[in-house]
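Possible regression after last week's pipeline update?

I re-ran a chain I had predicted before the update to compare outputs. Posting the input and the new output here so someone can diff against the archived version. Not blocking, just want to make sure nothing changed silently.
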Amino acid sequence: MKDLRDLPPLDISDADILDAMKKIPGYIDITPSDFREIYKLAYDIAVDRIAQSRIAREVMTRDVICVMADTPLHETAAVMARHNVSGLPVLNAKHELLGVVSDKDFLIRLGGAGMRSFMHFLAQRLKGKVPVIADLSTEKTQDIMTAPAVTVTEMTSVSEIANLFEERNINRVPVLDQDGRLTGIVSRADILRTSGMV
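New output (post-update):
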């Protein structure tokens, strides 16, 4: 996903611009190309302002589905499948955030660090390049989770979170309050909803 500031401006034609200019009473001394340049600049400024003004607390999912570190992997996989999510925060017995487990962690455990997606794993497996599939039946979530988790605060801007997703190649980030307690999670889908793209 691109940074919110990189969203393309609406593609409007010269005819659209001329029609709009005719609706403004009085004389306007501006060409369609001048207007288009102003429009693009104003659009970028508006998107940046909106992205900077929205914060994690306003867009996060508050009812966070979590698993405990000692949850067997088959149970964690079942929770992810049941809720149709690709990743979950992992907590310890004190309900403190330890890490995050994602479908990518499962793939890496099954096929190695080079696995980029399930289809990549499947293609490699069918070619015989993943000779043995690891037995995960006795492993716990803590054995494969990514730790420590990349986190943000409730006050982190949506723009910063979008940049973090790109920089760290992640799809979700737990949100912590000022005392370090888990209060929510922001996913790429939350960012897209905020930008009006879904």
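Follow-up from reviewer: compared with the archived run. The CA atoms of residues 17 and 98 lie 54 Å apart. Marking as no regression found.
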